[in-house]
Amino acid sequence: MPELPEVETVKRGLAPTMEGALLVRAELRRPDLRFPFPENFANAVAGRRIIALSRRAKYLMIELEGGDVIIAHLGMSGSFRIEKGPIEAGADPATPGAFHHPRGKDEKHDHVVFHLDGGSGPARVIYNDPRRFGFMDLARRSALADHVFLRGLGEEPTGNALDAAYLAARFAGKIQPLKAALLDQRTIAGLGNIYVCEALWRSGLSPKRSAGTLVDKRGRPKQALIALTERIRAVIADAIAAGGSSLKDHIQADGSLGYFQHSFSVYDREGEACRTPGCHGTVARIVQAGRSTFYCPHCQK
């Protein structure tokens, strides 16, 4: 699944084309993705101007005039690509940019086409999803907080609301493994497996230790939790700046790849020497709650 930095990268890639454009029509080439499209979806969004693109956790939000919001999730293999100018017979519908994992050119997997009219002329934003694990929904902006996919989500790891005191209040007394506690979307929205591994490595904390050990008897964050909070925000910021990890099927909106994956310090490095300066340990892989965890048993305590 794409993680928060990947979705943020997609949002930023789509925004110059979509924001302010008129959504002339939505072309649905099948009745469903992971779930059926909302009833009358195409008609409901046609003729509406796109006022903004935003993101909540791992969901892309396409905000329309009139108060409706298209909620889109990329699933495992979903991506958007942009085609500009009039449609020409025989034109190559290539996605701009270079691919490490070529994709997005097979029209049989183009399931949704947003036909736009913007300041630079006509454009098409095409959603391609071979595995069809992604989905789209339509909701009122005023009701987003109560939407089935959004209600109960925790703080974003990109804002000032995520601090050590916030985490201490949620970790106090917990014997749950630290990694599992961090992956709880009710605590931190959008933080996924890859970046939890990276943040724990940067913090020198074992994914197996109890989350409550980072909180003192008065419920205040210990120094280790203060440092971990800073590392979480830093690793997410670094990944967004690098364009997202672009693992496997995920690509940016303009077709180019992010390169943060090439600087992973611990994720997917089982058997390699730990990169912590002065550490002579080896990266290990364990399974926690069905997910691969990569860490250094020598320096992560």
From TrEMBL:
Catalysed transformations (reactions): Hydrolysis of DNA containing ring-opened 7-methylguanine residues, releasing 2,6-diamino-4-hydroxy-5-(N-methyl)formamidopyrimidine; 2'-deoxyribonucleotide-(2'-deoxyribose 5'-phosphate)-2'-deoxyribonucleotide-DNA = a 3'-end 2'-deoxyribonucleotide-(2,3-dehydro-2,3-deoxyribose 5'-phosphate)-DNA + a 5'-end 5'-phospho-2'-deoxyribonucleoside-DNA + H(+)
E.C. number: 3.2.2.23, 4.2.99.18
Function in brief: Involved in base excision repair of DNA damaged by oxidation or by mutagenic agents. Acts as DNA glycosylase that recognizes and removes damaged bases. Has a preference for oxidized purines, such as 7,8-dihydro-8-oxoguanine (8-oxoG). Has AP (apurinic/apyrimidinic) lyase activity and introduces nicks in the DNA strand. Cleaves the DNA backbone by beta-delta elimination to generate a single-strand break at the site of the removed base with both 3'- and 5'-phosphates.
Source organism phylogeny: Bacteria, Pseudomonadati, Pseudomonadota, Alphaproteobacteria, Hyphomicrobiales
Protein name: Formamidopyrimidine-DNA glycosylase
Domain Formamidopyrimidine-DNA glycosylase catalytic residue range list: 2-134
SMART domains listed in its UniProt record: Fapy_DNA_glyco (SM00898), H2TH (SM01232)
Active site per database record: P2, E3, K58, R291
